[in-house]
Each structure stands twice: as C-alpha cells, then as structure tokens.
Specification:
37% helix; binds adenosine-5'-diphosphate; Ribosomal Protein S5, domain 2; alpha+beta; elongated; Heat Shock Protein 90; 641 residues; single chain; 6-stranded mixed β-sheet; 9-stranded mixed β-sheet; binds magnesium ion; Rossmann fold
C-alpha cells in the first residue's frame, strides 16, 4: 500500500543543502552508496557467521548498473537489507549524531565563511540527491517483504510494497538530473567514469564491485578460429575494484601516497595524516593494523559524543567501528583499523571486548605509536612540534589520568617552554642544559606564557642563568605532580617555597631581618588576615619588592584551577594553597616602609603590596573597592605632605 510521509526537519535541512549543492565534488555520491552497500554486506555476513541457518551465506557482491536511456545508475547489494520501519528510521530521519554535528558545523562555518570544513564529513545516503531528480530504494530483509522508497528529496517520500528478485539486500536507483551548463550529469552513466570513480574511492572495498560491460571480441569461424577484422559485442562481468585490503598487502609495497589516500577516504579529512603506521605483527597475537595520527584535531574531538577507537576486523570480517579497547584515552585522536587472526569469531561482541588478545593488541599498538612519535621527535622536530601543539595536552593528560602510571612511557614525548632558550624543549634537553650539580628541574606556571614570564620569582634564576620551564596550561602542573622525578632530578615549582632551598648564610640573614622587623611583618599579617598564611622575607627576589609563594603542596595556579571547576563554590573546604607574602628587604620600597612609624600606614602599604603581588602572579585584585580606597588615601596623604 502506498504511503506518503514527510522527512524529519533535520533531514530536510540536510537535503536542502545537498540539492543546492555545497559540494564541488558531486561524484562522491557513488562512494557513499558503495560504502553503504559494503556496510550492509558486513552486517549480513556477521549474522551469517553467528546464525547460519537463519542467514544462509552467499556470494557477496555489489553491483553497479547504468541505463543511458532511462538515465539512472543503480547500486545493488546482497547485504542485510531494510524493512519498512528501517527505511523510515534510516532514510527518513537522521539518526546519526554525525549528521547533526554536520548541520551545526555547517551553520558555524558559513558564518565564519570557512566552508572547507564541510569536506570532513561523510554525508551519506542523502548525497545521492546532489545528482538526482529522484531516488528509489528497493530493499528486503531475510524475514520480511520487499518495499520501495521513492523521493525527489524535497519534502516528502513514499513507501510502497514491491517485488524484488533477491532474498535480502538493497538496490539504490539514482535518476540523474538533466545536464546543466557546467554539470554533465550524464557523464556518470559512462562505464569509464564509473570505473575511475570506483578505483579512486572504493578500490579497497572487500567485496567485488561488479558491472556488466560490453566488450568487442573477434568473431570466430566454425573451427573456433578468429576471423580477422570481424568483431562481435559480448557482455562480460568485470570486477572494478582490486579488493585486497591495503592492510593485507606487504607493508614494504605500500606507498605513503596509498596510506594517505586510504586515510582520507576513511575519515573525510582533506589533510594528510601527520603519522601513519602500517603494522604486520606476528607472535603470540598476530594482527595487521593501519593506524593514523591526524595532522589536526578532528572537528568533534571535544564534543560529548566523540567516540575513540579503531575499527576492528577479525580474519577479515568486520566486527565493529570504534573499538575503544584498542587505544588508550590519551590517544583518542588516533584512527585506523586492526585485523587479527587471533580473535575468536564465534563469541559475542561483548565477550570479544573482554578478550585478552584484544588488550594485547591494544598495548602493542600503544607502544609502537609511542616509539614512532619518539622517532619523529628525533628526526623531524618541526613536524613533531606541530603534532605536539595539536595533541601534546592529551599526552600530559595521559600521565595525570593514570596517576603517573604512564609517566615513564610518555615523559620523553613532552615538550615545555624553556625560559632560557625561549622555545620548546624536552625534559632530556633541559637536563642536558643543566649544571652538573643542579639536582632539580625548576618550573613556573601561570595562565599564559606572557604572564608566567612576569613572575617576580624568576628574577634570581635569570640572574644565575638557571633554566626554568614555563607552564602555561593547567594540565602541565597537574601532570608533573604525578612525575616525582626525571633522570633522578625532582621537579620544583619556583613559586613554592621550601626552607631547604636556602643556603646557611641566606637562612641566617633572613632570621636576622625577621627579628629586626618583626613589627612590620606582624602588622602586615594582621592587615591581610587569612588571605595569606605567613608574611616573610625573601631570598629570591632581585628587583621586585614582593611576591606570593606557596608552601609545598597545592600551588597558587592549581588552587585557581580547582576553584574554577564547576560546582567548586559549593565546597567550603575546597583545597587551598598555603600562601606566603614574601618581601624583598633590599628593595627601596621596603627601605621606605621600614622608616614608617604609624602601624596603620604600615598596614595600608602592606595590603597594597599584597595586591601588587597578586597582579604580578597573573590574578585579579580580590577586593577592588578596598584597593582603590586604600590607594587614594595613601596618595592624598603623600600629596598633602
Ligand atoms: P551511515 O552509512 O553513515 O550510517 P548513511 O546516510 O550513508 O549513513 O545511511 C543511513 C542509514 O541507512 C545507514 O546507517 C543504514 O542503516 C541505512 N542504509 C543505507 N544504505 C543501505 C543499504 N544499501 N543497505 C541497508 N541499509 C542501508
Ligand atoms: Mg553511509
């Protein structure tokens, strides 16, 4: 019975985009239809292997047929097929989050005038409407009757009962639009064009893509001998794709160009990957894998519905997309596939995910990726820095999120900004640049590189020529906290104070100063209340009059990050840094304060000094009103003298 239905609103938007084509490459519609056909066969084949009685196996194939008179091109498969409900759900609506993301990104890109982003999406079935007036889908599952879906892609579609000469599978028939000035749609009916599109986009599809072709063969005489100069037309079945999956070929025979083309066809990224691994591993577990690191973060890497993982095949049979057991979280940007002989086929997907072989393969890939990245760091630093800028934070996250368990593996992949060199250095480079007796790796952290560079605490390190790593990402310090040491050297935040760092003379001098100026220190501490835990003299400052340091434990920066976490304001006992306002006794400003006799004046100047220190550490003055009042009173007093 014929039923008419309306496309879902989101679908209409996408269809509208397809019809008023945003793509210059309309030819990709064929790739999309073939890829759907291949997916459908994958699904059927899997069922057949697990329940062969209900899903008898067959010779799987995808067949293309073009009819010049009726101006249509067909893609047919003997895969899983669709029921009427499937058609409504899969073709009448956008069920996949990918397409919804696409629409959102498209709207954003249009505003930003950057439509290149569109190339990153697989647009799927609807892409047929870029070239079609009308599309028909005839489909049947093993269990049910056949149906035909038909639409011009505008508002509505129809579904009706029909006959189909297959037990299961689908046939997508695309009626091509009339040729326009610059678009020769008829061209898609030409066998040479179809062949070249298949080899360009679908060569590695693992099922034969067949097409009937007319070839000329010499006419034969009664004895079966060729008659010279005479030919007849014969119809032959040609297979258009080479079918050998790239990952089954000998890696030595696979070129970078082939790997890049494969990556692009699978991800819709229009840039080459920054790193490709073509692995053929034999051993306790055997597997072939193609693993890629993109050259930039995938558009949806930070969206909630991003799924990490590699595509999993077992003995050449597709098992699942995005198998997350195959990559650790900190490599979630990595894509690719694994095909293994060592995985049992006849168990459920859930069981398979727990299989020890899968874990072993995952570990092996993780290790190979790390090695390859190290290699890149040594041989092509520029490229590595590009990689690190895109994904370095994920590696640091790997150390943090595993509580340091991955520190040994990942530490040599890290880069930080060196104060002395004013460029990125690795930890091993930092250590090489150290004096022999420097036992500590120093770092300082802040919100931006410019702000870190302003830290007063850096002054004495600059003067002594000791390098300090400058952290400008929150994750830096959190990661380092889980790395107790590197090559026997401990890490130390220069803004966190420890009496052990001082020499005997320095200690004595500070003790003397403290005794001498106890009143000033007490006044300032009283004025600041619990904003600081201590007011003390500094041995570190050279030019600046004050700075804020913290004692061992939480740093100022980390306290700040924790306070910014959603919901942090609800925790009255959120972790706090132990803060010390350090005063430079040699500064002129302190010299002047030391001469003051009025305790109230000392308190006012003390609060101002504290606010100044906060500003230099890259934070805001907390009580702006009090700050201004204070400042104005002191100005008035100074001027009236
Ligand atoms: P995707 O392939 O990314 O899921 P598409 O827009 O290409 O998105 O296809 C939408 C859905 O329509 C598919 O997920 C599948 O369920 C269904 N479909 C499309 N083509 C076929 C086919 N040849 N056989 C069976 N189902 C199909
Ligand atoms: Mg698809």
């Amino acid at each position: 019975m014929l039923e008419e239905k309306e496309f879902q609103t989101e679908s209409k938007k996408l269809l509208d985009l397809m019809i008023n084509s945003i793509y210059s490459e309309k030819e990709i519609f064929l790739r999309e239809l073939i890829s759907n056909a291949s997916d459908a066969i994958d699904k059927y084949k899997y069922l057949s292997l697990t329940d062969g009685e209900h899903y008898p196996s067959t010779d799987y194939e995808i067949r293309i047929n073009a009819d010049k008179k009726k101006r249509f091109i067909e893609v047919r498969d003997n895969g899983i097929g669709m029921s009427k409900e499937d058609m409504i759900n899969n073709l009448g609506t956008i069920a996949k989050s990918g397409s919804t993301d696409f629409l959102q990104k498209y709207a954003e890109a249009k505003e930003a005038d950057d439509l290149s982003i569109i190339g990153q999406f697989g647009v799927g079935f609807y892409s047929a409407f870029m070239v079609a007036d009308k599309v028909e889908v005839i489909s049947k599952t093993v269990d049910g009757p056949a149906h035909i879906f038909a639409s011009d892609g505008k508002e509505k579609y129809t579904i009706d009962d029909c006959d189909f000469d297959q037990e299961h599978g689908s046939l997508i028939r695309v009626y091509l639009k009339k040729d326009e000035d610059d678009e020769g749609y008829s061209n898609f009916l030409e066998p040479y064009r179809i062949k070249s599109l298949v080899s360009k986009y679908s060569d590695y599809i693992r099922y034969p893509i067949k097409m009937k072709e007319t070839k000329q063969e010499p006419k034969k005489d009664k004895d079966g001998k060729d008659i010279e100069g005479k030919y007849i037309d014969v119809e032959v079945d040609s297979t258009l794709n080479s079918m050998v999956p790239l990952w089954k070929k000998n890696p030595k025979e696979v070129t970078d160009d082939e790997l890049n083309a494969f990556y692009k066809s699978k991800t819709y990224d229009n840039e080459d990957p920054i790193l490709s691994l073509n692995l053929q591993v034999e051993g306790l577990v055997s597997y072939n894998a193609l693993v890629f690191v993109p050259s930039h973060a995938p558009y949806n890497l930070y969206s909630e519905n991003f799924e990490k993982g590699l595509t999993l095949y077992s003995k050449g049979i597709f098992i699942q997309d995005k198998c997350k057991e195959l990559v650790p979280d900190y490599f979630k940007f990595v894509t690719g596939l694994v095909d293994s002989e060592s995985l049992p086929l006849n168990i459920s997907r859930e069981m398979l995910q727990k299989s020890p072989a899968l874990t072993k393969i995952g570990n092996s890939i993780e290790k190979k990726l790390i090695d390859k990245l190290k290699g890149m760091m040594d041989t092509d630093r520029e490229k590595y820095e590009k990689f690190f800028k895109a994904f370095g934070d994920h590696l640091k996250f790997g150390i943090y999120s595993t509580y340091g368990m991955k520190a040994k593996d990942l530490q040599d992949l890290l880069l930080f900004h060196s104060m002395k060199e004013d460029k990125l250095v690795s930890l091993s480079e930092y250590v090489k640049g150290c004096d022999k007796d420097q036992k500590t790796i120093y770092f300082a952290s802040g919100k931006t590189l410019d702000e870190v560079k302003l830290l007063p605490q850096l002054e004495s390190y600059r003067k002594k020529g000791v390098d300090v790593l400058l952290f400008d990402k929150n994750i830096d310090e959190f990661a380092i906290n889980f790395m107790p040491e590197y090559e026997g050297k401990k890490f130390k935040n220069i803004a966190s104070e420890s009496k052990d760092d001082l020499s005997k003379e320095e200690k004595n001098r500070i003790d003397d100063l403290t005794a001498q100026h106890k009143r000033i220190l007490d006044d300032i501490k009283e004025a600041l209340g619990n904003k600081v835990d201590e007011v003390a003299f500094s041995a570190k400052l050279v030019d600046s009059p004050v700075c804020i340091t913290t004692k061992e434990g939480l740093s100022l920066n980390m306290e700040h990050v924790l306070q910014e976490q959603p919901g942090a304001e609800d925790y009255a006992d959120a972790p706090k840094a132990t803060k010390v306002l350090e005063i430079n006794a040699d500064s002129d400003l302190f010299g002047a304060i030391a001469k003051l006799t009025d305790d109230e004046d000392i308190k006012k100047y003390g609060t101002l000094l504290y606010d100044e220190a906060l500003l230099l550490e890259g934070y805001d003055v907390q009580d702006k009103k009090a700050f201004v009042k204070n400042l104005n009173e002191l100005m008035m007093k100074a001027m009236s003298k």
